[in-house]
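Appendix B. Extra example for self-study. Work through it before the problem class; the solution is given directly after the inputs so you can check yourself.
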Amino acid sequence: MENMPQEFWRWKEYNWHAPDIAWRNAKIITAGVDVGSVSTQAVVMVDGKLFAYANRRTGSSSPDSARRAMDCALEETDLALDKIHYVVGTGYGRVNVPFAHKTMTEIACHARGANFLYGASVRTVLDMGGQDCKAIKIDAQGKVVNFLMNDKCAAGTGRGLEVIADLLQVPIEEMGELSLRVEKEPEPVSSTCVVFAKSEALGLLRKGWKKNDVLAAYSRAMAHRVAALLKRIGIEKEFVITGGIAKNSGIVTRLEKELGIVARKPDFDTQIAGAVGAALIAKKMKDER
Amino acid sequence: MKNKIGYLCTYVPEEIIHAAGFLPVRIAPSTTPPTRADAHLQSYTCCLARSCLDQALAGRLNDLAGVVFAHTCDTMQGLADIWRESFPNLFVETVVGPVALNSPHAQKYLVAELRRFVAALEQHFDVRVTEDALRASIRIYNTRRRALADFYARRAEFSAVQWFNVMNKALTTPPEAISDRRSATSNQQSAIENQKSKIGVVLVGATIDEPTLPQILDDLGARIVADDFCNGARYFDTLVAEEGDPIEAIAARELTRATCPCKHRALDDRAERLLKLVKDNRADGVIFYHKKFCDPHAWDYPPLAAALDREKIPHLLLEVEQVAPVGQTRVRVEAFLEMLSEG
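Solution. Structure tokens for the complete assembly:
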């Protein structure tokens, strides 16, 4: 038997909770569940404050993924699901969150989430998710003013990164830093189609390119593709990035360079922005009822 | 004898084909993935050309006595040639109408071209296209246009999918079958509950050939309050004058009806029409429904989008191939409707 291969694409699944919030005294407890194509987040908010969350990999069943993420978020708290007043489902699997009262698209939720997490001065949000990528313009209330989505493929998305992580045998969370450690910035790979880029990257490896350089070439192509989406919608300050790829410094740095604008740096997990937005929208919906 | 003649574009004069004794039927893309047409077409050809050719190559259009093209975009022009070569015994004609509809020579030129088309029909099928027959066909088609306009005036009573079904049936059935609103909407129970939905959108594009988008709009409680589709409102826009020389009258209608991006009447013609559709129907937003690789619509999009931006009318661009992907389309449309209802 060979050893189990290392899963380079695998990113950390975890949960978090605020130790100092007493939910029993709360007026309103809401939750947002963002079932994406690659990852699922559950966020619980107590009177509009972050109380607990979890970030898990999406499985083959949306309802199970939603339940797993919510269980994980509540795991180390003494709060039970039935104490949560209102739940909004979002993301690709939003209609399949069994305990959600309402659904909202991830576009509206990332807009609202970015407004909460980064502040009211945010006007342009780039959500780089597992299987698509969205450029969203928002107002001071976190409402969507306009948005654009990429084509229906995995180019410039988290799933694409996972494939390249596997191919190059580089842990996904280290890809960004490694891609920046190059002597000279290489030309981008010519295709961001995951399948073609994969074979192009293989070709570069065979030519004797170092992994870092191949990563740099791929990251640059991805940044270029995403930049085109942002240029089409027009970037206004402040500019922020949400979703999993915001954690990849190699892509963020190249994107900033191409756009000539610096993205605000987060002090939280950018992957939870959609679920945070959903939980906030849940609060608003409950307040209005 | 086969009694149907197919066409792909509504600039093909149905009245002339009808007066020659044939039933003009629109050849529409199917939802079946093409297998045979790929050998003839580049990958950057639109799904309309690809699917229609594929159906012909698969023998599914064998009941047609001929196919008539209108010169609109480069793809249609090339497709006509491929069709001609693929089916050497079939009657394949291209009506080359004017592009500059505002040219002082447009009417005279189009009349000459339509007369050439009449002669080609007469010669190939050994028939006579009489003035009386043309006048009778004009009246029949005008009746159908009025019936569809009447249906549009009451479209709030119908769902988006019903609208889609009515229009797609209209272009494939004998014109006599649709003489008033009731016959246009037969088999369609009016969906009164649709009236309660609040958000109204205008759809813009070349053609809409499968009901994914109407179904999504119905599911999300939005209404199509107006459209600018070739197989929608553009189809029945403007009647043909029933007096005077019939060919002159058919030509005059082609020059005055709502234009598609392959024609030019004035620089802001389409933008003005779109703004009017939005205002007259109190629409909340516009959805552009483009076929991938349809360059006439893609070239027209920036000025139309800019005109809407100037008036602060929100809009969404959907780019679809043969069948719109449900999940991807739904998230875009749903987010757009959320944006409109928040605003």
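Self-check: Residues 211-233 of chain A form the longest helix (23 residues). If your reasoning did not lead you there, revisit section 3.
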